[in-house]
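Box S2. Input/output pair 1.
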Amino acid sequence: QVQLVESGGGLVQAGGSLRLSCAASGRTFSPYRMGWFRQAPGKEREFVSTITWRGGSTVYADSVKGRFTSSRDNAKNTMNLQMNSLKPEDTAVYYCAVGYSTNYRAPTSYDYWGQGTQVTVSS
């Protein structure tokens, strides 16, 4: 079993920055990848980014490419998402997730989820 806890959300003006963190705990934590998703009111949960746990390879959604950066700390079992140049359309609840699959875009590719943290970007 894996537990995930996100932190770092909040309210920021457009153009500002936030850094999200995801802390993982569990008896044996060795996923293939971790990912960030977001869900705005009335919309489906959408892929934001993913990072492989061992190699640190990243993939980003086109909507955040160049503005968001994902990183991980294997020793601390944490993953971070640095979000710069935030836009009002980035407003959503952000979730971190853990997966053991080579697939990464679909939420169904992930096995464990955090509770989410709210990010609100004002215009």
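Box S3. Input/output pair 2.
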Amino acid sequence: QLQLVESGGGLVQPGGSLRLSCAASGFTLDYYAIGWFRQAPGKEREGVSCSSGSGASTNYAHSVKGRFTISRDNAKNTVYLQMNSLKPEDTAVYYCAADRLAAICVPSAYDYWGQGTQVTVSS
């Protein structure tokens, strides 16, 4: 059974850092496009960062560029999102997603989703 499990969320002060992890089971991430998405209360789910199956291509939402970094460890079958210089507007539930064919960083392009992890940025 294909499964994605996120971890690493929590409460952090503005300017702080968190690293989210997304462990995959039931399939190998190597050739899957992966993405991190987030959804704040009352807002639509949005793409934060996505990486192509080969890892050769990555993109970031304008709001996180220069602060967030997506990476993958294929040996551990795990995807990461390093989040630095966090702002209150980064508060949201963060989801990881995977898809064999996704070519764009939008939720509708991804078939497999984790359950989400809450990130709260507040003093």
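Caption for Box S3: Residues 35 and 50 are 4 Å apart (CA to CA). The longest strand covers residues 18-25.
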